[in-house]
Design a protein that fits this description.
The protein is of the alpha+beta class. The chain has a five-stranded mixed β-sheet. Strand 3 and strand 4 form a beta hairpin. It has a single domain (6-101), classed as YaeB-like fold, CATH 3.30.2310. The relative contact order is 0.18. It is built from three helices and five strands; from the N terminus they run βααββββα.
């Protein structure tokens, strides 16, 4: 019998779901997210490069993506984003996720310099 995972939304994912105008689409997306409670690691596909560690599942006629992360030790799934796949567009769900995970560096503010570790 498969173990049941707790499913949570990040604040950003809740906002993204609320921005979906069509209530039927909202309901279908929420149902798919709820379905991640069973075997989330077998669903969707693992993402690479900038989004390594996240998984993505296609939804609603392949147009939408649900981006989530699985914590098998805590038996939790956290949905970090969901939205339309618009390759090459600033509003593409993967582009939004990349910017959330790796925010752009402000050119007017110098990046913090890590302190070197003392050698023993």
């Amino acid at each position: 019998m498969p173990q049941r995972y707790e499913v949570h939304y990040s604040e950003e994912a809740e906002e993204m779901l609320a921005k979906v105008k069509d209530r039927r689409v909202q309901t279908k997306l929420a149902d798919l997210v709820d379905g991640l409670a069973l075997d989330p690691e077998l669903r969707g596909k693992p993402l690479m490069r900038d989004l390594f560690g996240f998984r993505s599942i296609r939804a609603i006629g392949q147009r939408y993506r649900i981006v989530y992360r699985v914590d098998p030790t805590a038996l939790q799934v956290v949905v970090y984003g969901l939205g339309l796949r618009k390759e090459g567009d600033r509003e593409d769900i993967y582009e939004l996720m990349r910017r959330a995970v790796h925010p752009p560096v402000n050119p007017g503010v110098p990046a913090p310099v890590p302190k070197p570790k003392k050698r023993r």
